[in-house]
Design goal:
By secondary structure, this protein is mainly α. The protein is 70% helix and 6% strand.
Length: 187
């Protein structure tokens, strides 16, 4: 029975927790900075102006900044809360597209560094850094080809050494070299 290949979906959105937390925190701090700047500019521009209002059936004239301060604080807190939720959701989604490939790189390249030159790194279509994956895969293929070429050359030398009856020490060294290649690389 032919099974249809489904795209890989990550179930965990916090993949690289430290990176993603710092990424989200920076955006939230930027948002908080925007709220503080907005409030400061409002008070700066209302400096030297007066506002009249009724309180307890009395006409009150006061500095505009003092009159609108409670409304500005409540408005900014509500806006900050709502926009922060949106920012967290968006940055989590965006950081997920970056942290996922980073996690994949770390795990796959760990195997390559241990000598497994049969690895092929794959990412989901929507992930970032697919160009880097293509280059890494090309590098792995190139390393595989080079080590395979060296292994073939050593194998031919070992066969020649056996056929020509070269000294046992030379044949042993070639066999040790073959063993080292086989022990250190998966081709």
């Amino acid at each position: 029975m032919n099974q249809e290949k489904r795209p890989h979906r990550r179930k965990q959105y916090f993949i690289k927790k430290r990176f993603q937390f710092r990424f989200i925190l920076k955006f939230c701090l930027l948002l908080l900075g925007g709220v503080v700047i907005s409030t400061a500019l409002l008070f700066l521009f209302s400096k030297g102006t007066l506002t009249s209002s009724f309180r307890d059936s009395r006409l009150v004239i006061e500095n505009t900044g003092s009159a609108i301060l409670p409304a500005v604080i409540y408005t900014n807190l509500i806006t900050l809360a709502l926009i922060s939720i949106a920012v967290i959701a968006v940055t989590l989604f965006v950081s997920h597209k970056i942290a996922g490939p980073m996690y994949r790189f770390e795990s796959e390249l760990r195997e390559v560094s241990q000598g497994n030159l049969t690895k092929h790194i794959t990412l989901r279509q929507e992930d970032q850094m697919t160009d880097i994956v293509d280059e890494l895969n090309a590098m792995i293929v190139s390393l595989h080809d080079r080590v395979s070429d060296i292994q073939s050359h050593v194998d031919r030398l070992a066969e020649t050494a056996d056929a020509q009856g070269l000294p046992a020490e030379t044949r042993d060294q070639l066999k040790q070299l073959q063993k080292r290649i086989n022990d250190n690389f998966t081709l």
